[in-house]
Amino acid sequence: xxxxxxxxxxxxxxxxxxxxxxxxxxxxxxxxxxxxxxxxxxxxxxxxxxxxxxxxxxxxxxxxxxxxxxxxxxxxxxxxxxxxxxxxxxxxxxxxxxxxxxxxxxxxxxxxxx
Length: 114
What we know:
- This protein has 114 residues and is α+β, with helices and mostly antiparallel strands.
- The protein has helices at residues 8-15, 18-27, 34-38, 45-57, 76-108, and strands spanning 32-33, 61-66, 69-74.
- 61% of the residues lie in helices and 12% in strands.
- β2 (61-66) and β3 form a beta hairpin.
């Protein structure tokens, strides 16, 4: 399980918070300045910036500063690592369900021939 280049713990930690998930979801539509991202939330800008920091540290977003405006955008590599993990889990469980179906068919005496 340690074959991921991007550590998953910080990604899942970052996505565990509804504010941060909302930011990621909003950035899915395109880059946005921090002020715009913070607008829907009832918190001070320094508190919101902590959320931005967690997302950046997890590799989910990146930001650039031009003058006084910090603009954030998604970093697809972080999301891709989580997606790969989910795909692997889905494949494992699909195989287990197939094995269970085969076992139940064998125990029930059913065959594919009708």
